[in-house]
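Input sequence (91 aa), recorded before submission:
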Amino acid sequence: MRLNAAGVVVQRTWDELPVHCPHVQLDQFVIMPNHVHGIIVLGDDGGAGGNDDEHVVRDDRDLAAIRDYIAINPARWLLDENHPGNGPVDW
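Predicted structure, token format:
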């Protein structure tokens, strides 16, 4: 996928997270046309917030499944309900 200007900002921000938050390690990540998926590993100084979009990874199997989901997500974009070719979007 080719990134537009906003996508470049998102990618740069993702890449710089560990610079600003040393307790953070980055894992799988993908930029979609209307959202992003990423795994952030929090060190001892970090903590999970209360966002509904967050998921605490419980074990290696869970981590592998999430990584797979992120990796195949771009291939599923054409089927996404928010894809411009799939009808009106109510934002």
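Checked by second reader. The mean pLDDT is 85.
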